[in-house]
Amino acid sequence: MAGREDDRGRRRGGSSAGAGRTGRRPSSARRTRPADGRPAKPTTPERDRPPDRRGRTVRAAAAFGLSTTRRAAVLAIVVCALALTVAVPLRTYLSQRDEVQIQEERAQQLREQVDALERRKAELADPAQVEAEARRRLRYVMPGETPYMVELPGDDQREGDGEEEQKRVLEESWYVTLWNAVSGR
């Protein structure tokens, strides 16, 4: 019998750990009457300290019936789903951004090429420039002029090598050329 009274005393008495579970107020939350006879407002630990956010989370989880492990698993699944949802569009965005950069560089090169061609077109609009190009590239001369060809000592060797190679290739049959290509000659 004495054991029961001790248990009741502990439950009622001052242990704040037991007070939260049994639904009774802790000893600090008991009402006391002031000297003027009015009932006093209860002073509870909840009023004295800021709201506990963790307690709300625990109560919300308890309302949904989720344990801490299950909440962590659900959170991990949500994070993975968000990551997978964002991954494909992000990859597409990055690849398109690189492609746009490449195309902008190519467009800049083409603009430079167009500018160079426009300058060349403006140069060729002058008849004197056209005449100079015809003399230099096509070796044209005006009627009554005497053309002179100046050959330097190294010019014969450079031109001769290419012509000899072409003659040798033309004289060989196709199967000899094929065999030389395969054998590495």
Automatic annotation (TrEMBL):
Q: Which UniProt keywords apply?
A: Coiled coil, Membrane, Transmembrane, Transmembrane helix
Q: Where is this region: Disordered?
A: 1-56, 147-167
List compositional bias (Basic residues) regions by residue number.
22-32
Q: Where are the transmembrane segments?
A: 72-94
What's a Pfam family in this record? DivIC
Q: What is this protein called?
A: Septum formation initiator family protein
Keyword Transmembrane helix among record annotations: yes
Query: What segments bear the compositional bias annotation Basic and acidic residues?
Result: 33-55, 155-167
Keyword Transmembrane attached: yes
Q: Which residues form a coiled coil?
A: 93-127
